[in-house]
Request: fold
Amino acid sequence: MTFDPRTFRNALGGFATGVTIVSGLAQDGVAVGSTVNSFSSVSLDPPLVLFSLVTGNNSAEHFAPGRPFVVNVLAAGQTALSNHFAKSFDDKWKDIPHETWDTGVPVVPGAVANFEGEVIANHDGGDHVIIVGRVTRLHAPQDGAPPPLLYFKGKYAGVAG
Reply:
């Protein structure tokens, strides 16, 4: 390897990503959540998505196979939510407006899209765990959808157009 981890991270930062809050439930039913920008579609049939959490993330253990999840794709006006869920502390959902659907997992209103489902597999991904989930419900307004919150080169960015 001819580069160090910081150089690698900086190079990866040149790939603009969306920003999500991935939410779930602890075994005792307490809502958990983390800001995640490693989110991707996997398959249309069946409808699968993946997201990654750093192995030491306090929420990672709650996204085991069979557990419910929601991926909330944040809108440009939801930077404060992204910053809130990027921090590590207990009861992240206290005083955060949200709704729940079939699984009882928090859903962020006003997001570009929300995907609810069940984790079907976890895979080792170095210092991250790669979580694959089957989507069972979604909300994605086509008309009047807000612009997405983007992350580029270590900063929030907007959509040029």
Observations:
- The domain at 5-140 is CATH 2.30.110.10 (Pnp Oxidase; Chain A).
- The chain has a mean pLDDT of 93.
- The longest helix spans residues 5-12.
